[in-house]
Amino acid sequence: MTAVKIERLITSGFIGTGQPGLPPEGIKLENNVWFVGDDTEVLVIDAAHDAEEIVRTVGERDTLGILLTHGHEDHIGAAVEAARLLDTHIYLHPDDLFLWDQLYEEASPDFQLTEGATFSVAGVDLTAVHTPGHTPGSMCFVAQDLNTVFSGDTLFQGGPGATRWEYSSFPQIVESIQTSLFTLPGSMTVQPGHGDHTSIEAEAPALDAWLARGW
């Protein structure tokens, strides 16, 4: 049996192409795609921008599923093609289906993510935690055995994810972080949807500063 490992693939691409108020080509973003598994099987967390790069990173391993942290275009844009190429299933919280439908007219996620759902890979479990605020259906995935939480766009190095949309809520994302993430061990590594990792103990002391600035 090979050791379980966490891998990060950084992908880049444009979102919002052709939308009013944005450059014609859209906005370029870099995203983290996370892989948890061993040399035999793997779970993919988010499917951003580049299905072929995701497939190359998976290699010959059996893909047990694509877990989506939320429904924003930059996190789901390669999901359908990656799932087809990897012959696997897509999981998304139902509260973010309205965002999915803005990008995909015909395809649908295979399964709905729910609070407490557990996914096993290479002898470790990932537990789904509902953390609304950035989007209504935002999810984090806690791997206790790896002392890691995959936080999507809920928590970053330096604070919460953006809440500038009408369906977002700053008070709600703060509540989600306080009740679902800051209750995790302080040493736990936070692997976000963009940028570098942080930890629970590094971010928790800044809560009052976030509340004061309002974002």
Automatic annotation (TrEMBL):
Cleaved signal peptide residues: none
Q: Which organism is it from?
A: Leucobacter insecticola
Q: What's this protein's name?
A: MBL fold metallo-hydrolase
Q: Which residues form a coiled coil?
A: none
The chain positions of domain Metallo-beta-lactamase read: 30-194
Origin, by domain of life? Bacteria
| Keyword field | Hydrolase
Q: Which InterPro entries match?
A: MBL_Glyoxalase_II, Metallo-B-lactamas, RibonucZ/Hydroxyglut_hydro
Task: Name the CDD domains on file.
Answer: metallo-hydrolase-like_MBL-fold
Tell me the GO molecular function terms. Answer: hydrolase activity
